[in-house]
Amino acid sequence: MWLRKSQRKPKIRKRQIKSEDTTVSKIQRGGILIERKFVAQKMKEFQIGEYINQSLKNVGHSHTKMIKTPLGEKIIIFASRPGLIVGRKGQNIKQLTKTLRKRFNLENPQIEISEVENPNLDSHIVAEKIADALEKFGSGKFKAIGHKIMTDVMRSGALGIEIVISGKVPSARAKSWRFYSGYLKKCGDVASGVRKADVQAQLKTGIVGVKVSIMPPDIKLPDDVELVDKKEIKVEEIKEEKEEKVKKEVPRRKGKKKDESKGTATNE
Question: For the chain, which domains are there?
Fold first, then answer.
């Protein structure tokens, strides 16, 4: 069947379509590769943090931060007792740098240790304290440990704290005990600022879980209202100043003084 030229479909060259498809596929592949690089970097940072947390126990380890520099990778370890991490003559740090270089294929890892200013407001350090105390004194004194640490945290300036100890404490049946004090937000945007940590303590009866959540004092709540005093507007008296200026400008007239002594002499 024959068709007119107006009814015929326009021919598209196959070479053009192929070239466009290849460019789109290249861009998509490049984007995926960049995303994979970011994901791999974050996974590496998480693995390094987990390894340091497992290797550094009973030291008051809070968290780790990894920064890329032109010289190499910079790893900052935040802890409450930095002297124990360093060791004698820096032996512990040297050993840790060697293991990180071999295990995670780091070129030039540089480790820095910074001390936590207020360890009672750090949830990881507080949870580690509770776990160490349970391993030392046993599950019989878990109430005294919980109340003592709760009071220390509240005295240091926290708005609220919650401690949950779950496991075979103190009986053979598993239970969960909750210690709480102050004000703690659990939902909404403000809850993202609450510091949380989970730690496990190995006891003779079994593993006991410790969950700590602390509300720091520097968090901003939506219901915090500050009353500002109004500034008093002082009205200066301008009239008095004008009157004083007028008095200064007007000159005083000099009166003629009568010589009383002369008048008395003539009369005589």
Answer: 33-116 (3.30.300.20), 120-215 (3.30.1140.32)
